[in-house]
């Protein structure tokens, strides 16, 4: 662990008293109080749970204010869980005006924002202070004491709202009502007198929580029952899911060996209107995870996050002094987002502490997530409105990257803002399209669907048409629309097994917060990309429902970039919106995936057409597969390519080894599956005869098993059918079915070779030339001849046929025409007489075509 | 036309001929679209339906029009487009992007061209175009933003489709066809190509995304149709100002087409190629002989035009050679016959020539070695002979191996037409052995 260079004197921390609780899973001891001594000074500061403290930041005159929620020791490091308060200067300049008045110099705001680490190292605690809650309308009491702060409002990184202590306390009575959840915040343990008013205020806070020892007994006795309850809750939970896959995932989670213990640092929001939901969810989730504690291998995993977070909280500020120097205003904002910590989770954490013996800490994270998800949604709605007036000083400097752990939505909004702002002065009249209308988002932004940033932050688009496209009228038109490859089917039939495999792979990685790679292969048109996208859609739905942590989905396609190294640029752009050169992007991503961050969602990266990312040194592939193995990456990479043995064929060992053995191959569809696909797409629209469907699917299955081909043939068949109806009688109202004949016609159109008909319709000299070629081949016994040789034969054949012989120039042009059709394969034409000629069709085909005439 | 002219509809012959020339040259050289495309009704209908669905229903499609050169692929497409654009709805919504594989030789140029034709470049900002990668991302983004029912359909015409296939990774084709197979802005990708095997050139992923619709265009015209076509091409429309001249001309055209020698010429053309473009060239040659003094096309004109048309390029070049050069050519002809196409060098040719001089020294002078060398180099510059390998600079010029790029028939023909060709030379050329 690093220490700030600013620390002139080292502070020594000691626990006062014995540990009040011990978390077996996390191997943490919890203490009621802490005494801090500065080396060489006699003064000792006592800090206890519930007190307000100053925590050193990078600004020595204005340390951070926070409230201690928990004191704990894990693997030798002393830490404190805190609830942050932000001071005015920590709020970004442009948002301060939201306050609407001059802030009191000692005013702080209860921080309810997301995205910051609420674990701080005990060494960073400076001293205790007093925080007084002042009613919204009441004036600030006159106080010259710089150690007294006043709190009126809360700040959630977007807006101020009235903060009352009952709001903040809301979770505690709820927690108390749960048999398992609550735990005492150790009221008896040396509350070393904060300010009188504050202590008064704090007391009721602890009141609802029962006595610690009593609690412990109660919890242990009810443990068995809880397990049962939890199972019930869980099964209820899963029963409510409609889709089989979701219930599967729920079951999976239930019996999962993997613990979400790593998901330590989830952002949590304090949000009052949700409290009623909250306790339900809390109850359910707390129990759920208890079952998971039975799994054996957790302690190992669960240790890491704590350490990471603690070290990060200190080191992150030291790591990037340059960033700070560059963007001072930025820094403030970032700090305000980063510094203060969160309410509900911390509170729950705290109150759960004695029970941690049976309940892993992760349990609360889960419940907290549920809440956070909802709050996020609300916030995004609010931000839609509020951010209208935020100014857009944003420049995407690299330093922003690490701070962009702030909500994605906000960033997005600001960008939109910026875009509008920038475009307007350029003259809206010139742009053919309208500037985008700003509508508040009703739903949380799905990152996968979110637009990757285009050059210079413009969002181009094809202008929209004046009147909407016509709707399909007849049943054949309807069928055709449904059979179009682009129409998104309700479900993906015949890929259930693959779907489940990928789903559980990705889901488990998201739940564990780990990373991994998967290689998916299969010939074109077997639904690889569609299945993965479906999986992501399902995962996104369940993450919206709060069943799994939220994650970021990005998609890159080897074919959609100009150079393999553009992959870095695209990933970075989709991840953070920054633009960078490939090299710079690679280093930024490297940093991002290898360094711990306060709050990091799992990133699911879909790499389509992997083989095109091949470079001679294979460093793009190497990086893509190496990042997931990093400890802090939380990156799941799904790669798609056509060949099954791609790793063995083109990858060097170190790349193939990192890709691992998680592979899946999509088999070409069998005719039954193709039939099922068509019928599921048609969805009871009667447009095809049974036999016709079977013919199509059998034919395609025999050829390639490509579903796209199958759908295209069906579409063409409906057209042919339509035309034949139109020809027969104009009254197309009567529903016609596609018959076998129509399918046959479509098939022959698509698959028959045009060579024979091309030869048949060729001119006389061209036909003679082809015959001359064959005659010359036979004479030479080779499959190649020069033009001069063939020309001699041609002149001879012309005499036989009684046709005027051609001159050399004309013969060459005849030869050139056949070459353009690729009936002949020719050398470059400047070879003139020495041009070498080969046939591109079999001799039999030529003879057949010429004879049939 | 003013009323006055319409009343006394007798213009001077010169004016009539000038108008005639203008009318017919427009038809033959500018490739004006015919009123109705002939012989391609089914294909026409197919393409019209397809594009109409894209324009009106927002259904994405991809199609290849395949046919030999001069079969009327572009004509078909243009007439389809003309028909579609008569519809008010379509002409207002449909956006067009025309690309040509000969012009857009790589994806970078093609992307810029697409951006320009879609009028998206002013969205990019002051810096008109960023890097290739940005451009691609930009365009894909634009297409992705759209959806089936609300965005304007875009028609992509890829002329010389086969040349796009050779672009790196087939990025452009993959992306266009991918858009056409996904729920993005509606696009119709129409490719025109003369390669029958174009599908085999597509990369498997690109191929899978292509809808495999192919419209084949072949010239299935028969000879009577061909003659009729010639007649309609030459006949003047009824709107021609001078009625008397019109009637005279049209009847003379009819008589011309029925003439025996003209029919033979047309038959020869028809045998050679059914391509109408080459026919147009022939007819323009005939038309250029029409003047005020001779206000009709005579059969002899057609025959003469045909002779010009079918003249062998190399044989024509031989007419411009000196006697010495001709001698060298003949010597080379004997050498390549003697050694069955094996290459030879200047020294061998010179020896052969010297042998001829020894036998027939009466009519020819002996030339110095440098003069012969000069003549030899001239032949090489005319590409009548070609060095065996291009890096022949190292060997001495006398011994550089070359090959003759002339056929025996060409040499014989040239000698027969060569003005005042010495008979010795002719005999030497005809003799089987030197």
UniProtKB/TrEMBL annotation, chain A:
Pfam families cross-referenced by the UniProt entry: AAA, AAA_lid_10, BAH, WHD_Cdc6
Record's GO cellular component terms: nuclear origin of replication recognition complex
Primary location recorded for the protein, binned into one broad class: nucleus
Biased composition (Acidic residues): 407-419
Family matches, as SMART domains: AAA, BAH, Cdc6_C
Composition skew (Basic residues), residue ranges: 423-445
An example molecular function term from Gene Ontology annotations: ATP hydrolysis activity
Compartment(s) of residence: Nucleus
Cross-referenced PROSITE patterns: BAH
Keyword set, alphabetical order: ATP-binding, DNA replication, DNA-binding, Magnesium, Metal-binding, Nucleotide-binding, Nucleus, Phosphoprotein
Location of the region described as Disordered in the Swiss-Prot/TrEMBL record: 173-256, 300-471
Residue ranges annotated for the BAH domain, each copy included: 45-166
Residue spans of biased composition, Low complexity class: 186-200, 236-248
Feature: compositional bias, Basic and acidic residues: 225-235
GO BP of this protein: DNA replication initiation; mitotic DNA replication checkpoint signaling
Family to which the UniProt record says this protein belongs: Belongs to the ORC1 family.
SUBUNIT field: ORC is composed of six subunits. Component of ORC, a complex composed of at least 6 subunits: ORC1, ORC2, ORC3, ORC4, ORC5 and ORC6. ORC is regulated in a cell-cycle dependent manner. It is sequentially assembled at the exit from anaphase of mitosis and disassembled as cells enter S phase. Interacts with CDC6 and KAT7/HBO1. Interacts with LRWD1 predominantly during the G1 phase and with less affinity during mitosis, when phosphorylated.
Protein function: Component of the origin recognition complex (ORC) that binds origins of replication. DNA-binding is ATP-dependent, however specific DNA sequences that define origins of replication have not been identified so far. ORC is required to assemble the pre-replication complex necessary to initiate DNA replication.
Record's protein name: Origin recognition complex subunit 1
Protein's organism: Knipowitschia caucasica
TrEMBL record, chain B:
One Pfam family cited in the UniProt record for this chain: AAA
Gene Ontology biological process terms, A to Z: DNA replication initiation
Taxonomy, superkingdom: Eukaryota
InterPro entries: AAA+_ATPase (IPR003593), ATPase_AAA_core (IPR003959), ORC4 (IPR016527), ORC4_C (IPR032705), P-loop_NTPase (IPR027417)
Keyword hit for DNA-binding: yes
Ranges of residues in domain AAA+ ATPase: 59-220
GO-annotated molecular function: ATP binding; ATP hydrolysis activity; DNA replication origin binding
Keyword annotations from UniProtKB, A to Z: ATP-binding, DNA replication, DNA-binding, Nucleotide-binding, Nucleus
CDD domains: AAA
Transmembrane segments: none
Subcellular location per the Swiss-Prot or TrEMBL entry: Nucleus
Keyword DNA-binding in annotation: yes
GO CC annotations on file: cytoplasm; nuclear origin of replication recognition complex
Reported function: Component of the origin recognition complex (ORC) that binds origins of replication.
Family the UniProt entry places it in: Belongs to the ORC4 family.
Subunit structure: Component of ORC, a complex composed of at least 6 subunits: ORC1, ORC2, ORC3, ORC4, ORC5 and ORC6. ORC is regulated in a cell-cycle dependent manner. It is sequentially assembled at the exit from anaphase of mitosis and disassembled as cells enter S phase. Interacts with DBF4. Interacts with POLQ.
The protein, known as: Origin recognition complex subunit 4
């Amino acid at each position: 662990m690093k220490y700030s260079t600013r620390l002139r004197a080292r502070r020594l921390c000691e626990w006062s008293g014995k540990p009040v609780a011990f978390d077996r899973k996390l191997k943490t001891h919890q203490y009621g109080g802490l005494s801090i001594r500065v080396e060489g000074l006699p003064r000792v500061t006592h800090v206890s749970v519930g007190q307000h403290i100053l925590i050193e930041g990078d600004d020595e005159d204005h340390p951070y204010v926070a409230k201690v929620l928990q004191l704990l020791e894990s693997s030798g490091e002393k830490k404190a869980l805190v609830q942050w308060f932000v001071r005015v200067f920590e709020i970004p300049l442009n948002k301060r005006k939201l306050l609407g008045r001059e802030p009191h110099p000692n005013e702080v705001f209860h921080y309810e924002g997301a995205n910051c680490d609420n674990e701080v190292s005990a060494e960073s605690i400076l001293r205790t202070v007093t925080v007084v809650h002042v009613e919204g309308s009441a004036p600030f009491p006159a106080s010259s004491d710089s150690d007294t702060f006043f709190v009126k409002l809360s700040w959630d990184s977007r807006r101020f709202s009235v903060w009352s202590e009952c709001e903040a306390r809301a979770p505690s009575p709820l927690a108390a009502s749960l048999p398992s959840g609550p735990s005492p915040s150790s009221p008896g343990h040396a509350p070393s007198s904060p300010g009188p008013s504050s202590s008064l205020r704090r007391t009721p806070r602890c009141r609802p929580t029962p006595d610690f020892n009593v609690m412990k007994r109660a919890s242990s006795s009810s443990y068995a029952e809880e397990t049962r309850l939890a199972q019930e809750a869980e099964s209820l939970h899963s029963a409510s899911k409609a889709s089989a896959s979701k219930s599967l995932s729920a079951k999976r989670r239930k019996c999962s060996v993997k613990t979400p213990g790593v998901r330590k640092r989830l952002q949590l929001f304090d949000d009052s209107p949700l409290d009623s939901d909250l306790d339900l969810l809390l109850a359910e989730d707390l129990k759920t995870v208890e079952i998971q504690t039975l799994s054996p291998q957790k302690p190992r995993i669960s240790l890491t996050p704590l350490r990471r977070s603690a070290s990060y909280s200190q080191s992150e500020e030291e790591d990037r002094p340059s960033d700070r120097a560059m963007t001072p205003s930025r820094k403030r904002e970032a700090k305000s987002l980063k510094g203060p910590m969160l309410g509900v989770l911390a509170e729950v954490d705290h109150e759960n502490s004695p029970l941690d013996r049976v309940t892993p800490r992760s349990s609360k994270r889960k419940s907290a997530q549920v809440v956070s998800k909802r709050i996020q949604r609300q916030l995004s709605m609010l931000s839609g409105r509020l951010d209208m007036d935020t100014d857009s000083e944003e420049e995407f400097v690299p330093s922003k990257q690490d701070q962009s752990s702030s909500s994605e939505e906000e960033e997005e909004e600001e960008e939109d803002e910026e875009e509008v702002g920038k475009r307007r002065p350029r003259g809206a009249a010139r742009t053919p399209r309208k500037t985008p209308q700003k509508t508040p988002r009703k739903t949380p932004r799905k990152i996968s669907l979110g637009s990757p940033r285009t050059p210079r932050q413009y969002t181009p688009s094809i202008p929209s048409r004046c009147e909407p496209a016509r709707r399909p009228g007849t049943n054949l038109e309807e069928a055709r629309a449904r059979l179009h490859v682009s129409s998104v089917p309700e479900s993906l039939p015949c890929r259930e097994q693959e779907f489940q495999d990928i789903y559980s792979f990705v889901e488990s990685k998201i739940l564990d917060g780990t990373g991994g790679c998967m290689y998916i292969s299969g010939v074109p048109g077997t639904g690889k990309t569609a299945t993965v996208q479906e999986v992501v859609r399902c995962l996104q739905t369940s993450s919206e429902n709060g069943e799994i942590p939220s994650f970021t989905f990005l998609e890159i396609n080897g074919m959609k970039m100009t150079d393999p190294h553009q992959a870095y640029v695209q990933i970075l752009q989709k991840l953070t919106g920054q633009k960078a050169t490939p090299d710079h992007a690679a280093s930024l991503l490297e940093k991002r995936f290898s360094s711990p961050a306060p709050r990091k969602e799992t990133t699911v990266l879909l790499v389509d057409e992997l083989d095109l990312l091949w470079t001679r040194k294979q460093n793009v592939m190497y990086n893509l597969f190496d990042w997931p193995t990093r400890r802090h990456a939380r990156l799941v990479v799904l790669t798609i390519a056509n060949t099954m043995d791609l790793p063995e064929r083109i990858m060097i060992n170190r790349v193939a080894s990192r890709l691992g053995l998680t592979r899946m191959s999509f088999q070409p569809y069998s005719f039954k599956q193709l039939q099922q696909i068509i019928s599921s797409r048609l969805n009871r629209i009667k447009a095809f005869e049974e036999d016709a469907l079977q013919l199509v699917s059998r034919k395609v299955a025999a050829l390639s098993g490509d579903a796209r081909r199958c759908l295209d043939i069906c579409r063409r068949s409906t057209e042919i059918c339509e035309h034949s109806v139109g020809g027969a009688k104009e009254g197309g109202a009567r529903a016609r079915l596609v018959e076998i004949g129509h399918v046959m016609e479509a098939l022959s159109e698509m698959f028959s070779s045009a060579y024979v008909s091309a030869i048949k319709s060729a001119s006389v000299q061209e036909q003679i030339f082809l015959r001359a070629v064959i005659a010359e081949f036979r004479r030479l016994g080779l499959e190649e001849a020069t033009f001069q040789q063939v020309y001699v034969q041609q002149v001879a054949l012309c005499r036989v046929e009684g046709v005027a012989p051609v001159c050399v120039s004309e013969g060459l042009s005849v030869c050139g025409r056949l070459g353009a059709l690729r009936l002949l394969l020719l050398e470059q034409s400047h070879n003139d007489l020495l041009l070498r000629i080969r046939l591109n069709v079999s001799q039999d085909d030529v003879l057949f075509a010429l004879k049939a005439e | 036309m003013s009323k006055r002219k319409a009343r006394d509809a007798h213009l001077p012959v010169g004016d009539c001929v000038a108008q005639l020339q203008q009318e017919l040259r427009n038809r033959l050289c500018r490739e004006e679209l015919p009123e109705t495309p002939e012989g391609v009704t089914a294909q026409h209908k197919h393409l019209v339906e397809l594009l109409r669905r894209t324009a009106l229903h927002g259904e994405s499609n991809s199609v290849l029009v395949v046919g030999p050169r001069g079969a009327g692929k572009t004509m078909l497409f243009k007439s389809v487009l003309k028909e579609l654009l008569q519809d008010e709805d379509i002409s207002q919504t449909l956006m067009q992007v025309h690309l040509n594989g000969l012009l857009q030789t790589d994806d970078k140029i093609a992307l810029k061209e697409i951006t320009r034709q879609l009028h998206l470049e002013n969205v990019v900002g002051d810096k008109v175009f960023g890097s290739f990668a940005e451009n691609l991302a930009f365009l894909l983004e634009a297409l992705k933003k759209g959806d089936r029912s609300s965005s304007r359909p875009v028609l992509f015409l890829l002329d010389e489709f086969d040349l796009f296939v050779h672009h790196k990774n087939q990025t452009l084709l993959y992306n266009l066809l991918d858009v056409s197979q996904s729920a993005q802005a509606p696009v119709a990708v129409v490719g025109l190509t003369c390669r029958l095997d174009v599908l085999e050139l597509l990369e498997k992923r690109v191929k899978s995304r292509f809808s495999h619709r192919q419209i084949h265009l072949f010239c299935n015209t028969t000879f009577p149709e061909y003659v009729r076509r010639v007649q309609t091409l030459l006949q003047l429309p009824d709107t021609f100002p001078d009625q008397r001249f019109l009637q005279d001309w049209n009847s003379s055209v009819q008589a011309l087409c029925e003439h025996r020698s003209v029919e033979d010429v047309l038959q020869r053309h028809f045998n050679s190629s059914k391509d109408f473009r080459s026919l147009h060239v022939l007819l323009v040659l005939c038309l250029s002989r029409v003047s005020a003094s001779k206000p009709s096309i005579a059969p002899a004109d057609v025959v003469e035009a045909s002779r010009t048309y079918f003249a062998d390029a190399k044989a024509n070049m031989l007419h411009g050679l000196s006697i010495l050069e001709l001698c060298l050519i003949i010597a080379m002809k004997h050498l390549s016959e003697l050694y069955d196409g094996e290459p030879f060098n200047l020294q061998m040719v010179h020896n052969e020539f010297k042998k001829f001089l020894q036998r027939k020294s009466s009519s020819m002078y002996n030339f110095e070695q440098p003069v012969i060398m000069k003549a030899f180099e001239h032949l090489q510059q005319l590409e009548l002979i070609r060095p065996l390998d291009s890096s022949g600079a190292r060997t001495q010029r006398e011994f550089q191996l070359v090959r003759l790029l002339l056929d025996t028939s060409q040499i014989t023909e040239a000698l027969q037409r060569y003005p005042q060709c010495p008979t010795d030379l002719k005999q030497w050329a005809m003799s089987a052995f030197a």
